[in-house]
Specification:
Layout: H1 3-23, E1 31-39, E2 50-53, E3 58-61, E4 67-73, E5 76-83, E6 90-96, E7 101-108, H2 135-157
């Protein structure tokens, strides 16, 4: 590449970058949302409900009192989704102003599910009294049972302890 082309390329980048910088909109102040999540029937706070704005990838959990805070939200129209296990999710469409802090109160309706009828019957295993049963399968099933009991104990003793490596 000759010296003339290098100089032209340099000035093109400088002037092109300057004009692009001049066309940018001024930075907008981010908004925030503070929310309270309760159960509709009782009014009790719903701790650990999750609040999500999927379009921009911002999410958080409510604390034990049902309070959550979302910060750093670009101003404009957003869709806020609140949900908790056992309750029907709620979707709110909000318009946030620059630097605003909006407060929302959300009441979640308990999710009522009616399951189909289940029929239980008893059948005797043909080789249940036999000494020649499949001991390997029984040993594997016993290990599965023991592991399930250990997991239940760990979940009970330290329900929210996680470790990332």
């Amino acid at each position: 590449m000759s010296g003339t082309y290098r100089v032209l390329a340099f000035w093109f980048c400088v002037l092109g970058g300057a004009s692009l910088g001049a066309q940018r909109a001024p930075t907008k102040l981010s908004a925030s949302i503070v929310g309270y999540v309760t159960a509709r029937q009782t009014g009790d706070p719903l701790g650990f409900a999750d609040a999500t704005i999927e379009d921009i990838g911002i999410a958080t959990f409510a604390n034990g009192d049902g309070l959550f805070r979302l910060r750093g939200i670009p101003p404009g129209a957003v869709t806020l989704r609140i949900r908790r296990l056992g309750f029907t999710p709620v979707v709110l469409h909000l318009t946030l102003g620059e630097g605003s802090s909006d407060t929302v109160r959300v009441s979640l309706e308990p999710l009522a599910l009616q399951l189909q009828r289940v029929r239980v019957s008893d059948a005797i295993c043909p080789s249940r009294d036999s000494e020649s049963g499949d001991t390997a399968t029984l040993a594997i099933l016993r290990q599965l049972w023991d592991n399930a009991e250990r997991n239940k104990l760990v979940a009970h003793e330290s329900p929210f302890l996680t470790r990332m490596e």
